[in-house]
Each structure stands twice: as C-alpha cells, then as structure tokens.
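Practice set, problem 2.
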Amino acid sequence: MEQQTCSCSCGSDCSSDGCVTNTAASSVYACAGASNVGIISLELAKALHNENRYTMGCSSCVAVGDCGCGSDNEGPKDLLIDGCKVGCVKKIFDKQGKTHYNHVIVTQLGIKKEPNFDFSEDQISSLLKKLSDKGL
C-alpha cells in the first residue's frame, strides 16, 4: 500500500497520528473565526474534504511558515474560505507570498455574520452547491 503524506508536508505518514488526507489535487484552508461564519467556513472546508474535492489544509501552519503548505503557482489552485470581509486566511497566504489560490468569503455567499456558532446542514449544502456552480 502506498504511504500518503500529509497535505501540509509536515512529514507525517498520516496513518495514525498525522493529518487527514485524501486524493484531491489541491487543498482547502478555512478561517474558523469566532462567529457563525467562521465555524461555517471550517465546516464547509471539512465537507469539501469529505467529498474529495479538496484536501483539508492547515491555515495555522501556513501562518507560521513551518511547512510547505499552500501550492506554489503550479497545478490546481488551493481554495481559501474566509468567514467575513476581514479575510484573515487570505492575509495569511499573502503575507507568506502564496498567491496561487481561489478565495471565497462566506458572507458574500449570502450568510449573515452573527455573534454565535449556529449553522445548519442546509447552509453547508447550499454553500457546497454555490461553490460547484463557481467551478470550485
């Protein structure tokens, strides 16, 4: 059986104590901020990973520059999902000089930012369809 390595290039074999992985050609990075749209961005990224459309990546790893996360202008673009217009994930990538990505903002996809962690599976399903319609 071929050993898979983590999408974040941390060197782990991902089989027991490493990162999640799949066979997707590019990665998705999520905001996970302290509001409903932050949590929705994380849940959306997880759903994209589970559908094998993207491999879940680690935004924190990119922020600290400790691993080879984020594609470098080759192959399919990564997807960055920010919850709101502050755009923290995009700022992380830009600060690290990683510009080979597509970027979406949950609030620009029709979800209102609220000071809670509430969301519905219907919202995730709707967002998955909207991303598909955009070719993402």
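Problem 2, part (b): a different protein.
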Amino acid sequence: MIESYYLSDKVTSTSPEAFSLYEKSRLGEKKKEKIEYATVEALYLLSEGKLKLKTGKKILSYDAFLRLINKKDKRIESKYAVFEDLRKRGYIVKTALKFGAEFRVYGKGIHPGEDHAKWIVYAVRESEQMSWQEFAAKNRVAHSTKKRLLLGIVDEEGDVSYYEVSWVRP
C-alpha cells in the first residue's frame, strides 16, 4: 500500500512502493525525492486499493477524494472514466495540460521518454455539446503536436467509446 498525502491540490508520496510502481507502470511523476500523482492517477490507485491517502491526520476514501476534487473540476468523473478505461486496456496515460488536452496516451509497451505519445485525448460526456470551433481547435492542437486526436465519449452508464480523428489531404 502506497502511503500518500494530499496537500495544496497535490498528491505526493515518498514511499518505496510509489517509486517501485512508477518504474513498473509509470503511474505518477518523479519529482526529486517524491512521486507526484495527478488527481486521476490518485483516484485510480484509490479505486484499486493501492493508495492510502491522507490529508493532515484524516484518511480520504475514494468517494471523499472524488467529492473534494469535484468541487474544483466538474469534469473529473468523465476524465476519470476515460483514464481508467485506457489504463485497464494497458496504455500508459499521462496528463496533457501543456497540449491543452486531458491526456496523452502512449502505445502499448511504450514509456514516456522512450518515444512520443501516440494520441492526445479529450474526455467528453455523451450529453455535452461541442462547437465546430472547439472541435477544430482540438484537432489543430493534435495535428500541430504530431499526435492523433482521440475523443473519449462517456455515456450515462460510464462506458467509454473512442473516436480517432485525423487530417486528410484530398
């Protein structure tokens, strides 16, 4: 069990188990003497029973942490559904804030640093609407970063369907 702490909107751990899991599955990000987890990574590890998350002396459950995060990010549940689904399919999934997307996804067996991400992913609820301008902007970002655009559409039951979008020259 990885012992971790939630402080100032960050989840961190200095436990040997966190470093071991990072080396094995690339969950988290190495930052000097600690592993820092994105909120979706922490939620995933909580749901898998691999993380003990503390804030002060209080231990946060998956549900308590989700409620806390949901106050700051109203889209966390759809992001988490996509993250969890991709991880369970065997992909390495990392945040992609600098790309203006939710995630970057590496091909199976590829670790960050060994090669570039194959896709940038946007998580979208089935009931959400997106304008053509928003859609074009997402596709433009993917194209300019030499990645494929993957839309993860989350339905009402939490199931995810994926649509890959790419540029075509006629």
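Answer key, part (b): The helical segments are 16-25, 39-47, 62-70, 76-88, 132-144. The longest strand covers residues 119-125.
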